[in-house]
Write a structure and sequence with these properties.
The protein is α+β, with helices and mostly antiparallel strands. Helices cover 25% and strands 35% of the residues. The protein contains 3 helices and 9 strands, in the order E-E-H-E-E-H-E-E-H-E-E-E. It has a 4-stranded antiparallel sheet, with helices on one face. A 3-stranded antiparallel sheet has the order 1-2-9, with no helix packed on it. It is globular.
């Protein structure tokens, strides 16, 4: 099994093992691909935790989601066109959302406070097929 270790902050002395399952890798690849495609200069990925979840944030500095797209994200074949950039991101986002939900996760999409797109993924720590040592 292939895994990656993450350590949360300086107070948390326990590293967790995140197993790179095909579902998790595919979902994150699709979401990161869209962030890089629509970003102007920067894509940022962060990881955090609360008592019950591992939370992943993927943010870019692109045009953000148009209101018409934002209301339909998670459906297949949604098209985004802003700032001269065009792309079909619906199928990849649909697949990513479905895979993450099958793992017990929740995915939300919004525009960042300073523009750009923000995707938040909340995965339950009890998802033992992904997380170990929690």
């Amino acid at each position: 099994e292939v895994m990656t270790k993450f350590k949360f902050g300086t107070d948390d002395l326990t590293a967790i093992n995140v197993y790179r399952t095909p579902e998790l890798v595919s979902a994150l690849r699709n979401l990161m691909h869209n962030a890089f495609r629509f970003a102007e200069k920067k894509v940022m990925a962060q990881i955090a935790s609360d008592p019950n979840h591992i939370i992943l944030f993927i943010e870019d500095d692109g045009p953000g989601f148009s209101s018409n797209v934002l209301s339909r994200l998670g459906e297949p074949y949604v098209h985004q066109q802003d700032g001269g950039k065009k792309g079909n991101m619906g199928l990849g986002v649909f697949i990513a959302k479905t895979l993450l939900e099958d793992l017990g996760g929740k995915v939300s999409f919004e525009n960042g406070e300073k523009g750009g797109a923000l995707v938040t993924i909340r995965l339950p720590k009890k998802a033992k097929e992904i997380f170990r040592n929690l």
